[in-house]
Design a protein that fits this description.
single chain; mainly alpha; Four Helix Bundle (Hemerythrin (Met), subunit A); two-stranded antiparallel ribbon; 6 helices; 50% helix
């Protein structure tokens, strides 16, 4: 894949989702209204949404913003098809393309590099949501967060109140991961 930050973020989502056990599916998450199951459906749906815009692949069969609360089957059966669709879609972007379509209402098209960063942001942050909700260490490294910050700064403000909460104030000792999470309205130290 030509977009390293996206490749890394999709792999982070794959690894975190792969560690979720059946007894963790109903755990609360930093997304206050949603359980781990719902964040998994949302994350998978978002990746399918990106794939549908970038490469005309099928949309998810559920509403990513009203995700199902019950998972019938395995986590991998939900996540893997979405990650494969996203990877195939981004691999289909022609080198030198000036823009790609996006599922972000305020941004019908974007430069491919920025759009890939926005797609990566979605995958990485939801991987963080799932990891902390299941008692795992944060998969969001400072280095990955540094790569995601430009896409966050370019896309988040028009989506506040819908996809993102109000930003939290940075603290003096925050690293890039904490700054990114606070910018997205998340508490870097959230726990159930």
């Amino acid at each position: 894949m030509a977009y390293a930050v996206l490749s890394t973020s999709l792999q982070v989502l794959r690894e975190v989702a792969g560690r979720v056990t059946k007894d963790q599916l109903d755990n609360p998450t930093p997304c206050a209204e949603w359980t781990v199951t719902q964040v998994l459906f949302h994350a998978a749906g978002d990746q399918l949404g990106w794939a549908s815009m970038v490469a005309d692949s099928p949309l998810p069969t559920w509403d990513p913003f009203a995700p199902p609360a019950t998972l019938d089957g395995e986590v991998a059966d939900l996540i893997e098809p979405a990650l494969r669709a996203a990877t195939a879609a981004w691999d289909s972007v022609e080198p030198g393309a000036e823009s790609v379509r996006t599922p972000l209402p305020p941004f019908p098209t974007m430069a491919p590099e920025l759009a890939a960063g926005a797609c990566a942001l979605d995958a990485a942050v939801h991987a963080w949501d799932i990891a902390v909700a299941t008692g795992r260490p944060s998969p969001l490294t400072a280095a990955l967060a540094e790569q995601l910050l430009p896409a966050a700064h370019a896309t988040v403000e028009p989506l506040r109140g819908f996809a993102y909460a109000s930003a939290e104030a940075d603290l003096p000792d925050d690293d890039a991961a904490a700054r990114l999470l606070r910018y997205l309205g998340r508490d870097p130290f959230w726990n159930a």
